[in-house]
Amino acid sequence: MHAPSLPDRSIETYADVTGRDRLERLRSLADALGDVRILHVNSTATGGGVAELLRSIVPVCNDLGIDTDWLVMDASDDFFEVTKAIHNGLQGEGIELTEEMKATYRAVNDRNAAEIEDEYDIVVIHDPQPLGLLDRLEKTVPNAPIVWRCHVDLTEPDDEYLAFVSEYTRRVDHAIFSRSAYADEIDVPTTSIVYPSIDPLTEKNRSLDEETMAAECDHLDPLSFEAPVVTQVSRFDPWKDQFGTLDAYRRAREEVPNLQLVLAGGMAGDDPEGLELYERVAAEAVDDPNVHVLTDLPDATVNVLQRRSDVVVQKSLREGFGLVVSEALWKRTPVVGSSVGGIPLQVEDGRNGYLVEPDDTAGAADRVVDLLEDEDRRTAFGANGREHVRERFLLPRQLADLLDIFVEVLNIDS
């Protein structure tokens, strides 16, 4: 296990993007949790939405006076191949789950759990990868409630994988999901629903001056913002359906001949499929100079890309939540997204973007063209998107929801 390095974060710096009453609520909750020590555990420090959330939540909690640690599992590729199979199985498409895979999962979790030596009052386990820590944590921190934070789309899980994960989830004290529909599919004692959020102060989401914008645009050459640009930002993962987005782009280009497409994504440390899929997508697009397949861009470059694109697409087949949607909406860029997972919670159809069925590439293309051909609509949708995210999907709201749950689980009078 290792503790990632963390940026400095002050709760007061969020005063410009959220209401003062919410900040006061956070301080009140922090006072109630002042003697509590919290541990968050996940499987990667980079490349995924969970890591991004923790990189902001943990330092803000410490700034509020809540003693909070974050540990990341140390594991081999063999383990991550197993946990990616578990992830895929929980989202409905898993290979056979063998006894050897189960043994690898348990052994790596046991080895990591043995390295947790400090005392904690509550432990938050993120996603299925570290659930196996339970076998040892139940002995080493027997009085600490275990909260499982599930970020996965559990709409149609594979029964075999669901049964395996449920061996652990039924033993946690509480589970948090991103949508109520997910909680119906798995065996857990008590549940809460908390929408994820973006941090508006990070390099990826903060406001940028014109000089920075110009410099980052230069880094994206030969992409030109003088012609229309459609972008999808997501990990290179089969569930993100970059091939479907390519098909939608090709259909849209019949109406908008100078259209450009950007498929940008990072490589999560716990996802062994990422590089292979990136190479397949790049090979599929290699003959079209107007398609730009990019990986591991700096956060400031992603920020500019989401701001300067005319439309952002998120054509996922499954999606736990999809915070890249809120990232784009926060930057006043309308989104065409699939009606799966958490995307419909963020995209208000006909108000800040459009929703299409996940396999409807023709419909996605039509909606992209509708937006590209109507600048006034794009502007109105952009303004609506910014306010929708401000109200529902910024970090102070999510943190207040989480702290409320910790207070409840620990039976503290708030």
TrEMBL record:
Annotated SUPFAM superfamilies: UDP-Glycosyltransferase/glycogen phosphorylase (SSF53756)
Molecular functions per Gene Ontology: glycosyltransferase activity
Protein name according to UniProt: Glycosyl transferase family 1
All copies of domain Trehalose synthase N-terminal, residue ranges: 40-183
Superkingdom of origin organism: Archaea
InterPro entries reported in the protein's UniProt record: Glyco_trans_1, Trehalose_Metab_GTase, TreT_GT1
Single GO biological process annotation from the record: glucose metabolic process
Subunit structure, as described in the record: Homodimer.
Alphabetical keyword list: Carbohydrate metabolism, Glucose metabolism, Glycosyltransferase, Transferase
